[in-house]
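A favour, since you know our structure tokens better than I do. Would you make up a two-line entry for one protein for me to read? Write everything out right here, beneath this request.
=====
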Amino acid sequence: MTGDSPDLARLAARLHPEPPGPQAAGGDHILNQGWRPTLTAPPKPAAVLVGIVDRPEPAVILTRRAAALRSHSGQIAFPGGRVDPSDASPVAAALREAWEEIGLDQTLVRPLGYLDPYLSGSGYIVQPVVARVEATYTLCLNPLEVDEAFEVPLAFLMDEANHELHAREWQGVVRQYYAMPFGTHYIWGVTAGILRGLHERYHLP
């Protein structure tokens, strides 16, 4: 693999070298003081791949979940999912899910580090794994899980001017959340929250 772009090198230097653990978890509750997800059981571990394509202008790989899925259908997401007992680590889970969902060859992916975990309202503690992806990558989408995969320029996502605060009523409470509309894609919820975490890491001194 060739050397990292300056943007990737900057980001890699600001990531956690090891998973920081659930005590560091962020989530939508950060924007909604006094509210936290109501969980009836301990949060289930999950991992997602924040894959950044290494080009002169790097880009982040995102997916649109299949419309036929029972939960979060049609939403914009990172490749990823629940950590299985057979997964040796969050990295292993994220790479496995990326292969199963979009056919991303693991030999073209190099993990760079971790963001803070994200506590979702659906009962998952999501560990984002940030990784460099070779620009030569190709994909083969699993139509049962993904309708589309696309790239968003890292520069767009790291520009706070593109981070909007939206609000909607959920379970009788009006909640704020980040949204990053990009073309016809409405990036929001956990995905936007994780991207906000990426932005905060990127802009650390």
